[in-house]
Amino acid sequence: MAKSRNIAIKDIKIIYGAAAALCSMPDCREELLLSGTKSEKVQQIGELAHIIGKSDDAARGDPDYPLDQRDHHKNLILLCPSCHSKIDKQPNIWPVKLLEKIKKEHEEWVRIQLNEAFTRFGFDELEEVTKRIQAKPGQEIFPDVSLLNIPDKMARNNLTEEIKGSIQIGLLKSDLVRSYLQSVAKWDDEFPERLKSGFVKEYNRVRSKGLVGNDLFQAMQEFASDESWDFTQKAAGLSVLVYLFQSCEVFEK
Predict the structure, then answer these.
(1) What CA–CA distances, in Å, run from 224 to 33, 65, 105, 198?
(2) How does DSSP classify residue 11?
(3) What is the pLDDT of residues 119-166, one digit of tens each?
(4) d(Cα 207, Cα 142) in Å, to the nearest integer?
(5) Which DSSP symbol is given to 69?
(6) Per-residue pLDDT tens for 21-36?
(7) What is the CB neighbour count within 10 angstroms for residue 113?
(8) In angstroms, rounded to a whole number, what is the distance separating the alpha carbons of residues 158 and 161?
(9) 187, 223, 191: which is closest to 207 by C-alpha?
(10) 2, β-bridge pairs
């Protein structure tokens, strides 16, 4: 990814997910993932711009801003190369408060698009999402399918109101996800367990990298949608994640 410098992978994933892999500028919103082909992998062309400068003498630099927070996702905004160059060459036109506002409004716009996408997906999108998630045969199976108390589970996993909205919208499609899993299980009775095992494997992997709370949930949401910028696929991935969050030990009880 261009100009990611020393930014942690977890912060890159969170930013790309929250921005839906689109430039955050409202008059741009260029897609920042180049589709793969038989000969080329998917490529990311976005740039993570610092809202408060990376260094004290950079655009919007602030010597009082903690060094260990400058590469955090909260201080980063996803832009195309052109918009990144523009804001750094004219920092007085693009001050910190304005960029924070642009980032917040873009991420809210993404949430609205995602909510609207929940009316569009069905079994086809769930098949596309789940076929990439499944664990390989022979990995550990988790048989717990009891429904868990959502508020208690959120508290145990340090999830805040920011994530609550995603969980609530994901729950709207729980019946569809359940119907899909049941329909596939009629001819592949190990499918639901492979799906849960695939999630648990990824959950353990990202936890080992230090992600917790909202950051962990958002990383799992991106995993569920295969980091796709397509809102319908992102909606399907979120619904599968929330279904498993509710119905098995993908997250801590």
Answers:
(1) 17, 34, 24, 10
(2) H
(3) 888 888 888 888 877 754 444 433 344 445 778 888 888 888 878 888
(4) 18
(5) G
(6) 899 999 999 988 776 5
(7) 15
(8) 10
(9) 223
(10) 47
Q: Which residue's entry shows tokens 């930013």? A: 15
Residues facing 34 on adjacent strands: 43
Residue 106 structure tokens: 């873009």
Is the CB of residue 45 less than 8 Å from the CB of residue 2? yes
Q: Which of 184, 172, 189 is CA-nearest to residue 129?
A: 184
Total count of residues recorded for the chain: 253
Encoded tokens for 135: 């664990």
Token pair for 251: 């997250």
**Terminal C-alpha separation, the chain:** 36
Token pair, residue 205, equals 């992997």
Query: 3-state DSSP call for residue 33?
Result: strand
Rounded Cα distance between 98 and 126, Å, is 38
> Dihedrals φ, ψ of 107, to 5°?
-65, -30
pLDDT beyond 90 at 65: yes
